[in-house]
Amino acid sequence: MPESPLPDYYETLQCSPRADSETIERVFRHLAKRYHPDNHESGDANKFAELVQANDVLSDPVQRAAYDVSYDRVRESRWKVFNQDSATSEIANDARLRLAILSLLYVARRNNHLEPGVGTIELERVLNSPIEHLEFQMWYLRETAAVERLVSGHFAITAQGVDKLFELGGPYKTGPQLLTEGEPASKAS
Prior knowledge:
two-stranded antiparallel sheet; Arc Repressor Mutant, subunit A; globular; mainly alpha; Helix Hairpins
């Protein structure tokens, strides 16, 4: 039986892995009020249960330390799309970053079409790109209707985005657009 994927408790609580315990508690309380099943406007029992589980793990120092070990390992290996240092120009880097974002969002939607979103923190972490570089790309992809922002605040690829991704060669294209891990930049030219 395959191992179930590690839940991203930081993304569930919409906070950084560097957040202190007070921040985690404050964010949890805010989100718990919003998603509590007794809240008739925005209650969501499933989302509330996810929040409680995430808070239980992240608020306990021993459980959080154990979770962080696995989380870091999974985070480093998940969705390696490209080596950002290999870009030779800003324009080429922008094009590669957009392709990487679309690829990442495609994989997320394909893996769970009912909850296809990826949060900003996860995008920043997986793509190893600062939020400042991602903001322009996300704006562009939203303006061209390739990406949408979900009610949860996460981003998801649209059908138009899937078409664009496959027009560009698909999510696993290697060569000039995307490098395989460890391949020197000079081979991509």
